[in-house]
Amino acid sequence: MIGNQPLIERDHKVLWHPCTQMKDHETFPIIPIKQGQGVWLEDFEGNRYLDAISSWWVNLFGHANPIINGALKDQLDKLEHVIFAGFSHQAGIELAEQLVAITPEGLSRCFYADNGSAAVEVALKMSFHYWRNKGQTQKTRFITLENSYHGETLGALAVGNVALYKETYAPLLMDVITVPGPDCYHREANETWQDYSERRFALLEQSLQQHADTVCAVIVEPLVQCAGNMRMYDAIYLKLLRAACDKYGVHLIADEIAVGFGRTGTLFACEQAAICPDFICLSKGLTGGYLPLSAVLTTDTIYQAFYDDYQKLTAFLHSHSYTGNVLACRAALATLTIFQQQAIIENNKQLAKIMAKAAQRFNDHPHVAEVRQTGMILAIEMVKNKHTKEPYPWQERRGFKVYQYALSQGILLRPLGNVIYFMPPYVITEAQLFHIADVAWQAINRAVQD
Ligand SMILES: *Cc1c(COP(=O)(O)O)cnc(C)c1O
């Protein structure tokens, strides 16, 4: 058996891992994973880790899922990839048809890219370019919400608002209009999510009123701001936003990269507000967590503004080398098959209830300010002072202590700052959910000591 150690040493010599201070790995070694099965990951010494965060929110139906594996094995001997300009393939066509069918009514065109950030770039560029093709060249700006996250490439980073990722690069980023968000963590003690979200919408409407002439689009993460500490808000906000965008002649971009494919309890979060955005961005769960792929779906109105003789120079000349990769499309089709065949959305209602029950005790924890849940996402806000919600100083890295302890107990949790969250694959069991909650409880108790 090769063991973990040789791989840890080789890794440390040549690799640079994402979103990581590499020096941390001097004292807390990276974990090389040999194989996965269902919710489990296994290292080279036989230690197992329950993947309670779906490997950064991408995995839906477990690792080494037999249905998705089967689809990929079948595809592999036929075609691995083909240029997607001038050429097409069955899986890409079929996936676009299905995405058009299952996303909100009105979205009728599918543009592929290869990761979430790229999808956001596509939506931003398409929106800007639509207005330009329509002669509205003064529309060059975007409105975004406080605490939002849309990816790491410069355009996506610019429309995001998580200081930890953004501030360093501020001199490189386009100027955006950032408005106070609907994040219900800040509501008054006796205020409902709906009342608070509605009240906060007035601030966005003011901004639209003031800037609509120069604004291309408003970009939002429907219902849950995931990277922004899993902060949540009410669907009324999206309803009001859709109406206001129509009123002021501004596009609505729904970034469902994290919340799509059942995470919020419905297949897409926009369904809970019964709205159709002008653009929806999908990635992460799209391939069941197997391969990088993203899609931007948009309306016929927008598509038609680009459709003309070549000499008019209105075409969307954006591409990525791996656009529409056929293996990724097959993984996505297999993922959608599982949704259809196994009544996943219906079953998840039960799982979400179990998750709520498993986490109920945290409400009374002396260092938990809030337990919040939207569908299959549950978050626990660990604070210094429960009553004032005073946070722990970030330098203390208490969330990191939770991470370390949970790993020692065979659970992969990866808190965002001091927010511990569960976002498991949908193949998780009741017993496993209770086990995760038990370990999280012990981990928090340790992390809040002195
Ligand atoms: C993860 C994420 C992105 C970026 O996707 P990548 O594939 O990591 O580039 C964009 N928006 C949201 C809401 C996300 O959660």
Overall description:
By secondary structure, the protein is of the alpha/beta class. Helix content is 37%, strand content 16%. It has helices spanning 5-14, 24-27, 54-57, 66-76, 90-102, 116-133, 154-158, 163-166, 193-211, 236-248, 300-304, 326-341, 344-359, 398-408, 430-447; strands at 33-37, 40-43, 48-51, 107-113, 141-145, 177-179, 215-220, 224-225, 231-232, 251-255, 279-282, 294-299, 368-374, 377-382, 411-412, 419-422. It has a seven-stranded mixed sheet, with helices on both faces. A four-stranded mixed sheet has the order 1-2-3-15. Strands 13-14-16 form a three-stranded antiparallel sheet, covered by helices on one side. β2 (40-43) and β3 (48-51) form a beta hairpin. α4 runs antiparallel to α12. The protein is globular. The two termini are 41 Å apart. It binds pyridoxal-5'-phosphate. Pyridoxal-5'-phosphate is lined by residues 115-117, 120, 149-151, 221, 226-227, 255, 257-258, 283.
Structural class: alpha/beta
If strands are numbered along the chain, what order do they take across the biggest sheet? 4-12-11-10-7-5-6
Mean pLDDT: 98
Overall structural domain count:
2
Distance between the termini: 41 Å
Poorly predicted segments: none
**Which ligands occur here?**
pyridoxal-5'-phosphate
| Count of individual helical segments | 15
Give me the CATH architecture of the largest domain, please. 3-Layer(aba) Sandwich
Shape: globular
Query: At the first level of CATH, what is the class of the largest domain?
Result: Alpha Beta
Major sheet size, sense and barrel closure: 7 strands, mixed
Radius of gyration: 22 Å
**Total beta-strand segments:** 16
User: In which range does the helix fraction lie?
Assistant: 25-40%
CATH-assigned homologous superfamily of the largest domain: Type I PLP-dependent aspartate aminotransferase-like (Major domain)
CATH topology tier name of the largest domain: Aspartate Aminotransferase, domain 2
